[in-house]
Amino acid sequence: LLLAVLLWAPWWALHGAPLTELSGDQDFQLFLQRNLEFTRKIRGDVAALQRLLCDTLQLCKEDELLLVRQDLDIAQAPLEQCHRRTFQAETCFSQIRAGLRVYHGSLATIQALLPGHAGLVETLQLDMANLSSNIQQQMEDLGLATVTYPTENQDPVPTFSSHFHHQVGGFFILANFQRFLETAYRALRHLTSL
């Protein structure tokens, strides 16, 4: 569901995960198609929140905010295992799930900035939890190792020294999340072509 910037070069092989024999498996292909759509929906919801931040707070251009970003402690979930030449589905799926967890908690920042759109944030969080659950279920079905996270969110919500930093932090949380989703999307799409 989640992909940042993946390399455009073709992946030559999958190592470690028993996916080559599953590439034609209808259940696995159905899982991929459904979750590509799910990821696309989540990306659309994040884009809607980005537009709301732009319209409401006039925070629209990343290059204008880069100096402020240096002062912020904004998590950026890694997805390097989803775009290496030695791509491994197990580690990529695990990184997607871990990233979803990080951004799920960070969205509380957005909810505080856009209280009138709490429903959209809550829907997005529910979709993210469902996507993570779908990936975990598929990993279990494939016999891949999974990590079960506690239901309560133990990741701290980012804190900011000023209201302006809070606003800019929200902007970068959404920008990072959108890049993460783009990479995840590309990784899932790559799996459909094997």
Number of strands: 0
Alpha-carbon distance between the two ends: 17 Å
Instruction: Please give the share of residues in helix.
Output: 55-70%
What average pLDDT do the residues reach? Answer: 81
Can you give a write-up of this model?
Helices cover 60% and strands 0% of the residues. By secondary structure, the protein is mainly alpha-helical. It has one domain (26-148, 155-192): Up-down Bundle (Growth Hormone, Chain: A), CATH 1.20.1250.10. Helix 3 packs antiparallel against helix 5. The chain is elongated, with a radius of gyration of 17 Å. Residues 1-18 have low confidence and may be disordered.
Distinctive features:
single chain, 194 residues, mainly alpha, Growth Hormone, Chain: A, 60% helix, 0% strand, elongated, disordered N terminus
How would you summarize this macromolecular structure in one to three sentences?
It is built from 5 helices and no strands.
